[in-house]
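Ops channel
N.P.: pipeline sanity check, posting one input/output pair.
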C-alpha cells in the first residue's frame, strides 16, 4: 500500500510531477483580512489625531507638530493617541510579512498549471495497486482531482515552446501507446508502472525538427517558385510560404510578435527578389 513516503519519493524523482495546490482563495482572504485590520487602525488613529489637534489643551494640540510631546504623554490621561500609535506599531510588526506575503502571492500566481497529461500521471499512480493504491483518504484525496488551483514547479514547462508542447503532449503519448511501452521499462521501485522519457531526448528531437524546418522552408520556397510559370501562382506561393514561415517560427521559438513580423517580412522580401530576378514570365 502506498504512503506519503512513496509519494514524496515519486515527486522528488520526477520534476514533472512537482505540482501543488496554490490555495489562491485562502491567500487572497488572508491578505484582505490583514489589510482590513490595518485600515480600521488607520481610521481610528486619524480620528484621535483630529480630536487632539482641535483640543483646547495646549499639550494635546501640539501632538501633530511634536513627536516629543506625543511620546511624553505616555502614562497620562492624554496618551490615547500615543497608545494607538504603539498598538499600530505592534500590529505592523506582527504584519511585517504583509508586503512579503503580497510579493509571494504575486510570484505564486505567475506559476503555470501542470498539463493534463502530467496531472493524469500522478492521478493514475495514486490509483494503481502497485503505486499509491488509494492511500489518500477524506479531504486529502481531493488534492489533485483537477487542474483548478494547482501549480507546477517544473521548469521544463515554463521554458517549452509550442513545438515542444505538441511533441511532449501528443507525439510521445502516441508513440508510447504503439511502440514505446515495448522498449521502455517501468521502474521497479515505489513508482512501478510509470514510463519516463528523458527531457534531454525531447529537446534533441525538437532541435532536429527545428533544424530541418529551418532548412526546408527557405530552400523549398525557392525550389517551388523556380518551377512556377504564372506570375499569379508565384505570388500565391509567396503568400503561402510566408504564412508557413511565420507559423513555424511561432511554433519553434518564443519570439515576440514584432520579431516574427519582421522576420516574415524579410523572408517574403527574399522571395520577391528571387521572383524579380528570375522574371515573372516563364523561365
Amino acid at each position: 500500500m502506498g504512503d506519503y513516503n512513496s509519494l514524496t519519493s515519486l515527486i522528488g524523482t520526477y520534476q514533472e510531477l512537482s505540482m501543488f495546490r496554490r490555495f489562491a482563495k485562502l491567500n487572497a482572504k488572508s491578505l484582505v483580512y490583514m489589510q482590513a485590520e490595518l485600515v480600521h487602525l488607520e481610521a481610528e488613529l486619524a480620528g484621535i489625531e483630529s480630536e487632539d489637534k482641535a483640543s483646547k489643551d495646549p499639550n494635546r494640540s501640539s501632538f501633530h507638530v511634536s513627536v516629543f510631546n506625543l511620546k511624553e504623554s505616555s502614562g497620562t490621561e492624554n496618551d490615547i493617541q500615543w497608545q494607538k500609535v504603539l498598538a499600530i506599531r505592534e500590529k505592523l510588526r506582527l504584519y511585517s510579512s504583509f508586503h512579503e506575503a503580497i510579493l509571494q502571492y504575486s510570484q505564486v500566481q505567475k506559476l503555470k498549471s501542470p498539463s493534463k497529461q502530467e496531472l493524469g500521471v500522478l492521478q493514475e499512480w495514486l490509483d494503481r495497486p502497485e503505486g499509491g493504491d488509494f492511500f489518500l483518504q477524506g479531504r486529502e484525496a481531493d488534492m489533485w482531482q483537477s487542474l483548478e488551483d494547482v501549480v507546477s514547479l517544473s521548469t521544463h514547462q515554463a521554458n517549452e515552446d509550442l513545438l515542444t508542447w505538441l511533441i511532449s503532449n501528443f507525439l510521445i503519448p502516441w508513440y508510447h501507446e504503439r511502440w514505446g511501452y515495448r522498449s521502455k521499462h517501468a521502474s521497479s521501485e515505489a513508482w512501478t508502472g510509470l514510463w519516463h522519457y528523458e527531457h534531454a531526448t525531447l529537446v534533441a528531437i525538437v532541435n532536429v525538427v527545428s533544424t530541418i524546418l529551418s532548412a526546408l522552408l527557405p530552400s523549398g520556397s525557392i525550389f517551388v517558385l523556380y518551377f512556377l510559370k504564372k506570375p499569379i501562382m508565384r505570388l500565391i506561393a509567396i503568400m503561402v510560404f510566408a504564412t508557413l514561415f511565420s507559423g513555424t517560427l511561432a511554433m519553434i521559438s518564443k519570439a515576440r510578435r514584432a520579431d516574427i513580423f519582421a522576420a516574415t517580412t524579410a523572408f517574403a522580401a527574399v522571395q520577391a527578389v528571387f521572383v524579380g530576378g528570375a522574371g515573372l514570365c516563364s523561365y
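N.P.: looks fine end to end. The first strand starts at residue 19 and ends at 21.
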